[in-house]
């Protein structure tokens, strides 16, 4: 595992982000702070819930098409943005081995610990696989990844839905710049569907999504010596048909005054006030084609699951 750029100090970044988020006119917290140890465990639980169709739908597509994709693309290396789901990544790695010359896997992630754990597991299971974990921001640092032949860049899980349009454009532009002739891009996108199905995926009956959302307040309390009362906030998720995005927030059930000692900051909430925590945008084929075209990419193939809930988009440099 190596660094693409010097890592930012986690605590100083957290102090800055929480200060700006809690003093903004509309309060917010960056969704990256969901994923402490507890948050990561809760998210893994979410992916196994019956309401959360995204993981199963994407896995279904990969199970059907991974071998044919790799046989057609013939990559020498698989570059993954984000550490990804090991189950889905392994499907692609094994298909790469069966179908062509590729023996190199390059995951890029902000978490060095996650990369080391993944590299250790994969190298133990696949002696033929070369793993080079890179710590960095794949929007800013993708052009720094050294090339070893034909490349397939992968971004699974519809994580791109967490990017607002301006950041989505920046990401896709970075991908376009990192692709040479013969390279490919594989992108997972969650599709627009009936609102009830989408809402249920982020507000499950067992309450795991609610617990996951509230966990961000636990992180803030622990790291910044805060006393935000978790029982004063409730999980809220809604679909915005104009942006085609699910929005998650935490809504104050009563007036709240809390202190964050590390920031020397008192923060207050009126009843009904919300902290925005995450956006999860959904897509149509025409929207993806437009986003790709704007960034200098072309859609070469569009693969969906049996219920048209999710799509894997195969792209290349425009």
Quick gist of this model?
The protein is of the alpha/beta class.
Structure description:
The protein has 318 residues and is α/β, with parallel strands linked by helices. It has ten helices and 14 strands. Strands 1, 2, 3, 4, 5, 6, 7, 13 and 14 form a nine-stranded mixed sheet that branches. Strands 8-9-12 form a three-stranded antiparallel sheet, with helices on one face. Strand 13 (297-304) and strand 14 form a beta hairpin. Helix 2 (37-47) runs antiparallel to helix 9 (208-224), helix 3 runs parallel beside helix 4 (86-99) and helix 7 packs across helix 10. The longest helix is centred in the first third of the chain and has 20 residues, at 54-73. The radius of gyration is 20 Å and the shape is globular. The relative contact order is 0.16.
Approximately how much helix is present in the residues? 25-40%
Order of helices and strands: EHHHEHEHEEHEHEHHEEEEEHEE
General shape:
globular
Q: Tell me the structural class.
A: alpha/beta
Give the termini distance in whole angstroms. 32 Å
What profile does the largest beta sheet have? 9 strands, mixed
- Proportion of residues in extended strands: 15-25%
Treating each run of at least 4 consecutive H or I residues as one helix, how many helices? 10
The count of β-strands is 14
The radius of gyration is 20 Å
Mean pLDDT: 93
Parts with pLDDT < 50 across at least 5 consecutive residues: none
């Amino acid at each position: 595992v190596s660094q693409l750029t010097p890592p930012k100090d986690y605590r100083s970044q957290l102090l800055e982000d929480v200060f700006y988020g809690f003093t903004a006119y509309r309060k917010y917290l960056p969704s990256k702070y969901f994923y402490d140890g507890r948050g990561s465990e809760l998210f893994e639980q979410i992916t196994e819930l019956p309401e959360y169709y995204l993981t199963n739908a994407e896995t279904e597509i990969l199970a059907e098409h991974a071998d044919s994709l790799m046989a057609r693309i013939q990559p020498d290396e698989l570059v993954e943005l984000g550490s990804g789901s090991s189950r889905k990544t392994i499907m692609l790695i094994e298909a790469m081995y069966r179908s062509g010359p590729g023996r190199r896997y390059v995951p890029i992630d902000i978490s060095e610990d996650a990369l080391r754990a993944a590299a250790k597991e994969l190298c133990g299971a696949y002696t033929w696989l070369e793993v080079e974990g890179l710590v960095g921001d794949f929007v800013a640092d993708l052009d720094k990844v050294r090339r070893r032949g034909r490349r397939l860049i992968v971004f699974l899980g519809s994580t791109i839905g967490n990017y607002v349009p301006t950041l989505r454009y920046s990401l896709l532009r970075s991908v376009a710049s990192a692709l040479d002739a013969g390279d490919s891009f594989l992108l997972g996108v969650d599709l627009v569907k009936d609102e009830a199905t989408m809402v249920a995926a982020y507000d499950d009956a067992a309450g795991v999504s609610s617990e996951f959302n509230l966990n961000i307040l636990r992180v803030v309390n622990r790291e910044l010596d805060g006393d935000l009362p978790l029982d004063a906030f409730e999980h809220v998720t809604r679909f915005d048909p104009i942006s085609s995005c699910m929005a998650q927030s935490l809504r104050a059930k009563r007036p709240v005054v809390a202190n964050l000692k590390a920031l020397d900051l008192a923060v207050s909430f009126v009843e009904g006030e919300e902290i925005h925590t995450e956006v999860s945008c959904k897509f149509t084929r025409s929207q993806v084609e437009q986003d790709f075209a704007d960034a200098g990419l072309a859609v070469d193939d569009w693969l969906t699951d049996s219920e048209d809930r999710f799509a894997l988009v195969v792209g290349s440099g425009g």
